[in-house]
């Protein structure tokens, strides 16, 4: 950004502050008409300029520290907040400051428009400046909370109204974009997933080993047949039509199989167990599984239920199981509650929410359960929820360290976990795989209780063609590599927290990244991996040279990327993804093509392209060379009106990063992304939010909206761009609608360079 442009922006901000009666002086932290302080946490020191904080002797995970009074901040307004802080804690897991924009009287996070942690920085004050936008509520407030235990201080707190984002509208008479878009991404290259090559191998019948529809448990019989096939290098194991039960707490094992086909011949597997994945596929090559259906025994143990709120009291909610006169399991587990749409019969309604792991619970009648929840006021009598009884417990297909794996003509009706989870797999394909409830069974509130397809630590080359993935408890597809955030380090070693055994191996090359995701320019090879703290999942990684760099600032950490893995060359074609909780596809990969698919009724984004790290997970090494072409998006991101994860702006597509801090990064770790010739219908928020990216192109897409929101979103079907470079949003078409009052592109002028928004037109047209 040029010096002249910076100067103009400074003038604009100060002019806005003068017009609204604001000054640049710090807040008087002792002024109780403007600032509330929690005396159990904070006290003013000296002449009142420092707010000293100490939670080291307090109970509870969370304590609020400071919040502005109603009326201090205006609703639906952008602000710059700045202050200095220091925070000392043993490490990030011990305690941190947490900033948020939340209504003063709100009881939970559902109306937050901004939230996030600050990194700890020891005993020296560190300046912070960030921009946020308040919500529509009259009692909107800026707040600082504290997670766990720390000692610290805050001073020089200032609020200044921020310049509104720049807006470039789509207009009826827009001329085509003036220039040619250069550097177009190409997406994935064609490749082949090899099928079994064992024409002379024997064909084995599973029935010869006791595999039978009359058996109470077929696990041992099928494993005997598979072991025989491995020993004899058989080409194929054939099943027979029928329903087969599996009740043992053991997996169906395909271990070390080469050039092998499991042909179900229309067989249906019904599982009922308390642990283990249904199939464990390990160290296999050129494996084909086809003509098979898998399901769970819902009559004995429902995976999820539709429940209705009957009554609420402070701290409890009474739920009725609407599909049962008597629920079959009296030891029912309540894993997750999610708002339910009875029209589409799926998770996800406007302004809906989730509640994780509520407890305890008490039966009041055969089909009425009282559950203890944190904020019972959110539950309205008559409203419906999906109550999940399982989450990530027992996956259906677990594929590990294998190559050239094909799933073909598979029906997965339900499972108590992830449908397909792939770890360390190279070359895989899904052809005509259908994940949907069986017909004429109305009690099926869910298919997979977690993701449908979860791919991590892969070595690339994945095809998904002519598939249907729907009605899951989490994302339809999640593809990513795994990183780790490091706070304890020496020149030749680090301690990695929250990773799993086997993530890092001797000989793997590790790239070091700063906490803002920018490259350090240094890497090293792992010489040794040991356990530093088994109880807390901390591993010591020793390198072959003293290459570990110092963090950017004291108190920061480093990221490590394991370059032994590379999720790349992904093709997703001619498939449908629909009616699920969370996202359609998460793409944390490179060289990707997504074309001619249907995305419908996702609770959150249809496509999320990201990289990041946080306390729950650390995923992705960036994303690049992605083409999304010829897809249809309908009713995407239906749930959130105020979405704190997305700065209060729901969207169909996210291109951005997440960090273990509320601070932004200038690193453009996402690059070369093209969306073209797509149709977006009834998007409930933005079309796309674009940040931490360069060379992003949206061209020749069409946007049509005919469905009203309960609360109108003024930026509906628009774009928002920040912290980005070389973004082209050109020659797109809006079907004119009163529901989209401002079609066009918003951008943060301070952090965006080389933005082109031309040729975007608004035209009258028929409904789609």
What features would you highlight for this structure?
4% helix, 23-stranded parallel β-sheet, Jelly Rolls, 14-stranded mixed β-sheet, 768 residues, globular, single chain, 5 domains
Give the topology.
Layout: H1 3-19, E1 35-37, E2 42-45, E3 50-54, E4 62-68, E5 78-88, E6 95-103, E7 114-117, E8 126-133, E9 140-148, E10 151-161, E11 166-169, E12 203-205, H2 219-232, E13 236-238, E14 242-246, E15 252-255, E16 258-271, E17 279-282, E18 285-296, E19 304-313, E20 316-321, E21 336-341, E22 346-347, E23 354-356, E24 361-365, E25 368-372, E26 384-388, E27 397-400, E28 403-412, E29 420-423, E30 426-435, E31 453-456, E32 462-465, E33 468-470, E34 477-480, E35 483-490, E36 493-497, E37 509-514, E38 519-533, E39 538-543, E40 558-562, E41 568-573, E42 576-580, E43 585-587, E44 590-595, E45 598-602, E46 607-613, E47 618-619, E48 623-629, E49 632-636, E50 651-658, E51 670-676, E52 679-681, E53 686-690, E54 693-699, E55 702-704, E56 719-721, E57 724-730, E58 733-735, E59 744-747, E60 752-758, E61 761-763
Parallel strand pairs: 12-13, 13-16, 14-16, 15-17, 16-18, 17-27, 18-28, 27-29, 28-30, 29-31, 30-32, 30-33, 31-34, 32-41, 33-42, 34-43, 41-44, 42-45, 43-46, 44-48, 45-49, 46-50, 48-51, 49-52, 50-53, 51-54, 52-55, 53-56, 54-57, 55-58, 56-59, 57-60, 58-61
Antiparallel strand pairs: 1-4, 2-3, 3-10, 4-9, 5-8, 5-10, 6-7, 6-9, 11-59, 19-20, 19-26, 20-25, 21-22, 21-23, 21-26, 24-25, 35-36, 35-40, 36-39, 37-38, 37-40, 38-39, 46-47
């Amino acid at each position: 950004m040029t010096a002249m442009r910076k100067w103009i922006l400074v003038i604009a901000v100060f002019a806005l502050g003068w017009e609204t009666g604001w000054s640049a002086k710090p807040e008087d932290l002792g002024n109780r008409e403007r600032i509330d302080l929690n005396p159990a946490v904070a006290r003013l020191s000296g002449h009142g300029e420092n707010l000293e904080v100490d939670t080291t002797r307090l109970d509870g995970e969370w304590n609020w520290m400071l919040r502005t009074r109603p009326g201090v901040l205006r609703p639906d307004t952008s602000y710059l907040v700045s202050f200095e802080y220091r925070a000392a804690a043993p490490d990030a897991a011990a305690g941190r400051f947490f900033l948020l924009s939340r209504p003063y009287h709100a009881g939970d996070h559902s109306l937050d428009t901004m939230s996030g942690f600050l990194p700890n920085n020891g005993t020296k004050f560190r300046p912070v400046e960030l921009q946020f936008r308040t919500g529509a509520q009259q009692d909107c407030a800026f707040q600082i909370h504290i997670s766990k235990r720390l000692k610290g201080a805050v001073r020089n707190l200032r609020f200044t109204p921020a310049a509104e984002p720049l807006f470039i509208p789509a207009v009826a008479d827009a001329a085509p974009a003036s220039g040619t878009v250069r550097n177009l991404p190409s997406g994935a290259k064609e490749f082949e997933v090899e099928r079994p090559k064992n024409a002379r191998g024997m064909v084995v019948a599973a029935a010869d080993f006791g595999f039978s529809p009359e058996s109470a448990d077929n696990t041992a019989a099928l494993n005997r047949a598979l072991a025989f096939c491995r020993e004899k290098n058989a080409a194929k194991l054939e099943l027979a039509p029928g329903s087969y039960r599996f009740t043992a707490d053991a997996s169906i094992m395909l271990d070390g199989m080469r050039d092998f086909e499991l042909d179900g011949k229309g067989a249906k597997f019904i599982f009922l167990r308390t642990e283990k994945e249904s199939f464990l596929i390990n160290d296999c090559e050129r494996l084909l599984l086809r003509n098979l259906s898998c399901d769970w025994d819902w009559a004995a143990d429902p995976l999820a239920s539709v429940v209705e709120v009957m009554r609420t009291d402070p701290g409890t909610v009474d739920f009725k199981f609407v599909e049962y006169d008597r629920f079959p399991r009296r030891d029912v587990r309540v894993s997750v509650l999610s708002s339910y749409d009875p029209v589409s019969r799926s998770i996800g309604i406007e302004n809906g929410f989730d509640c994780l792991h509520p407890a305890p619970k008490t039966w009041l009648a055969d089909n009425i359960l009282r559950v203890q929840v944190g904020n019972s006021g959110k539950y309205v009598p008559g409203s419906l929820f999906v109550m999940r009884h399982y989450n990530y417990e027992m996956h259906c297909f677990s594929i590990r360290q294998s190559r050239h794996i094909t799933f073909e003509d598979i029906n997965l009706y339900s499972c108590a976990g992830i449908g397909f989870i792939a770890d360390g797999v190279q070359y895989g394909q899904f052809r005509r795989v259908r994940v949907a409830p069986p017909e004429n069974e109305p009690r099926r509130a869910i298919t997979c209780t977690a993701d449908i397809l979860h791919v991590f630590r892969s070595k690339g080359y994945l095809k998904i063609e002519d598939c249907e993935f729907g009605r899951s408890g989490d994302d339809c597809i999640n593809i990513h590599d795994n990183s780790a955030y490091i706070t304890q380090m020496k020149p030749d070693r680090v301690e990695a927290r929250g990773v799993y055994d086997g993530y890092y191996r001797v000989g793997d090359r590790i790239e070091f990244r700063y906490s803002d995701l920018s490259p350090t320019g240094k890497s090293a090879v792992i010489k040794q991996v040991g356990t530093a703290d088994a109880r807390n999942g901390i591993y010591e990684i020793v390198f072959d040279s003293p290459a570990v760099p110092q963090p950017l600032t004291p108190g920061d950490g480093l990221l490590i990327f394991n370059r032994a893995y590379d999720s790349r060359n992904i093709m997703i074609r001619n498939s449908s993804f629909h009616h699920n909780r969370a996202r359609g596809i998460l793409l944390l990969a490179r060289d990707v093509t997504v074309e001619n698919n249907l995305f419908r009724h996702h609770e959150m984004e249809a496509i999320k392209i990201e990289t990041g790290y946080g306390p729950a997970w650390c995923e992705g090494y960036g994303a690049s060379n992605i083409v999304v072409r010829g897809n249809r998006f309908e009713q995407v991101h239906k749930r959130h009106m105020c979405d704190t994860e997305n700065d209060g702006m729901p969207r169909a597509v996210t291109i951005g990063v997440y960090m273990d801090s509320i601070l932004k990064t200038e690193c453009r770790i996402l690059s070369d992304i093209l969306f073209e010739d797509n149709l977006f219908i009834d998007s409930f928020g933005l079309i796309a939010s674009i940040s931490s990216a360069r060379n992003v192109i949206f061209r020749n897409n069409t946007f049509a909206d005919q469905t009203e929101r309960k609360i109108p979103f003024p930026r509906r079907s628009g774009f928002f761009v920040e912290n980005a470079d070389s973004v082209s949003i050109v020659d797109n078409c809006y079907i004119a609608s009163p529901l989209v009052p401002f079609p066009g592109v918003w951008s943060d002028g301070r952090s965006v360079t080389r933005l082109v928004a031309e040729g975007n037109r608004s035209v009258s047209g028929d409904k789609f």
